[in-house]
UniProtKB/TrEMBL annotation:
Keywords: Signal. The keyword Signal applies. It comes from the Bacteria. Residues 1-22 form the signal peptide. This is Uncharacterized protein.
């Protein structure tokens, strides 16, 4: 049973990741900007350092900004997932919702929930699913309201 469940999750992951690889260039940091991260964190934030010796991939689905608030490290991350069809993404999103502790979040025009278990806001619109985490490294210390700020900014860009 567990092997079947693992296989199903692997298949869903490939279905969601595959189309992103076949699409045109995509950079999550162009959608989730430094200004978006700073607004959600409530403090200055810096992007992850870029290694000049490594060529940047054509498709970058995850973007993280880090900073310090009240002397403690904080980060804002947005990870984008795409599917071939809206149904594929909707099914994977629903499956993930069942796996993690969730709190429904009402946001006009999208499906969204907060997972206290992972400390992430999950937002789905059409064929795009975004997982947003904002706050300290410890997931139980993250505030859904901070992630909601980032989600509200990102939804306008989807």
């Amino acid at each position: 049973m567990q092997a079947l469940r693992f296989g199903l999750h692997a298949l869903i992951g490939l279905a969601l990741a595959g189309p992103a690889l076949a699409q045109e260039a995509f950079d999550a940091c162009e959608v989730f900007t430094q200004q978006d991260a700073e607004a959600a964190l409530g403090t200055a934030a810096q992007p992850e350092p870029v290694n000049p010796k490594v060529k940047r991939p054509k498709v970058v689905t995850k973007c993280t900004y880090t900073g310090f608030k009240e002397g403690k490290p904080v980060a804002a991350t947005a990870e984008f997932r795409f599917g071939r069809t809206e149904g594929d993404v909707k099914n994977a999103f629903g499956e993930h919702r069942l796996q993690v502790q969730t709190k429904p979040i009402l946001i006009s025009g999208v499906d969204a929930f907060w997972s206290g278990k992972t400390g992430q806001m999950n937002v789905r619109k059409d064929r795009t699913w975004v997982q947003i985490s904002v706050g300290p490294p410890k997931v139980t210390d993250r505030d859904p309201d901070q992630a909601r700020k980032a989600a509200d900014l990102l939804i306008k860009k989807l």
